[in-house]
Amino acid sequence: MKTKSNTRSRGMKMKLTPNDDDFAGLDAWARNLKFEDGRPLNAIERGEERIARRVGRPPKPESAKAKRVMISMAPTLIEAAGNYAKRTGRTLSGLIAETLAERIKRRAS
Q: Are residues 72 and 42 in the same domain?
């Protein structure tokens, strides 16, 4: 079994780890690890761990986030707008947003 020799920055020798391709040796080595044998993470390693622990999608910038609003409309208008949005391949909220943007643009010019 090939081993890798790791050296700390202070010149202290760390325990040898098995070759990454020797899965049985790597598994046996990992089972013998003890918490006390470790060392605290430095600032760079803490930052890398924090990034690795993030789960899910990255957060969107504030300018790209959609805000939820509650509006009131007649039920027949909502139904008609929903049907039109489906026929044209849009969502109801997308249709409302496009319509408002066009209306505002027309008023501005």
A: no
Using DSSP's 3-state secondary structure scheme, residue 70 falls into coil
The sign one gets for the Cα dihedral 76, 82, 84, 87 is: negative
Structural domain count, the chain:
2
Tokens of 27: 């598994």
Task: State whether residue 90 is helix, strand or coil.
Answer: coil
b/e for 67-89, b at 16 or more Cβ within 10 A? eeeeeeeeeeeeeebeeebeeee
What is the tens place of the pLDDT at every residue in 13-45?
Answer: 556 667 778 888 888 888 888 888 888 999 999
One domain, residues 49 and 71: no
Asked if residue 80 and residue 42 are part of one domain, the reply reads: no
- What's the pTM? 0.43
Which two three-digit tokens encode residue 75? 């039920």
Same domain, 9 and 48: yes
In the structure encoding, which two tokens stand for residue 20, read together? Answer: 């990454």
**Residue 36 lies inside a defined structural domain of this protein:** yes
